[in-house]
């Protein structure tokens, strides 16, 4: 039974190759945490090639707000058993033959993907601290005399919740802000607190959840946040503050 053309076309669209500098850029089926495709560069010719992720793992990690130490040397622990190396911030293969090239492409792409996922998971607490600091700095700059941290509010269930930040407006309303990152505990606590307070139906409170859109998010997690309170990406938060905290 032959593979249908529609399936062949779908498969061929997943993997592509194009000239790139002194080599060729190969699209793979591996994904970084942001869902960007892992791309590798193949250099060489005749029967001798090298494969590199061109620093893709480091770029994916830093784009998510995680600072790497010593130019990405920490990535070595993820690749040391695979015969690969890290040079100038790129994960690369040794020289391989034409017959070995398909395996080398797979190894480098998988290693780059795994390094990005595992490094971000191991450093997940740092972006959380950085993000809350970013939100705090913005609020204090805009409303230095009206912003306070960790305001306690009693929800409809009579349970108490501490919101990350509160901004008091001139008309007596209070803007409650929770800053969240894409990990389960951060999402769950923000949704629970905002939902319980929202159930008070108290116009005194204006609630917003701000999420760190430098980080990779699942669509279903964003939907879940909206169930707690109106949710805003940090990149749009500043533009909405004047209206929210007027």
Would you give an account of this structure?
- The chain is of the alpha+beta class.
- The chain folds into two domains: 5-124, no CATH class; 128-244, 3-Layer(aba) Sandwich (Restriction Endonuclease), CATH 3.40.91.80.
- The protein is built from eight helices and eleven strands.
- It has helices at residues 5-14, 56-63, 76-79, 101-122, 125-142, 184-198, 219-228, 234-244, and strands at residues 17-20, 23-31, 37-45, 48-52, 85-87, 90-92, 147-154, 160-168, 174-180, 205-211, 231-233.
- It has a five-stranded mixed β-sheet with strand order 7-8-9-10-11. A four-stranded antiparallel β-sheet has the order 1-2-3-4, covered by helices on one side. Strands 5-6 form a two-stranded antiparallel sheet.
- The model has no long low-confidence stretch (mean pLDDT 85).
List descriptors.
246 residues; Restriction Endonuclease; 5-stranded mixed sheet; 8 helices; 11 strands; 27% strand; elongated
Short summary:
The protein has helices spanning 5-14, 56-63, 76-79, 101-122, 125-142, 184-198, 219-228, 234-244; strands at residues 17-20, 23-31, 37-45, 48-52, 85-87, 90-92, 147-154, 160-168, 174-180, 205-211, 231-233. By secondary structure, the chain is an alpha+beta fold.
Spatial order of the strands in the main sheet?
7-8-9-10-11
Can you tell me the overall shape?
A: elongated
Helix content: 25-40%
The assigned structural class equals: alpha+beta
| Strand content range | 25-35%
N→C terminal distance: 67 Å
By DSSP (H or I, 4+ residues per run), the number of helices equals: 8
Order of helices and strands, N to C? HEEEEHHEEHHEEEHEHEH
**Mean pLDDT across residues:** 85
Number of DSSP E strands: 11
What is the radius of gyration?
A: 24 Å
The count of domains is: 2
Poorly predicted segments: none
What's the main sheet like? Answer: 5 strands, mixed
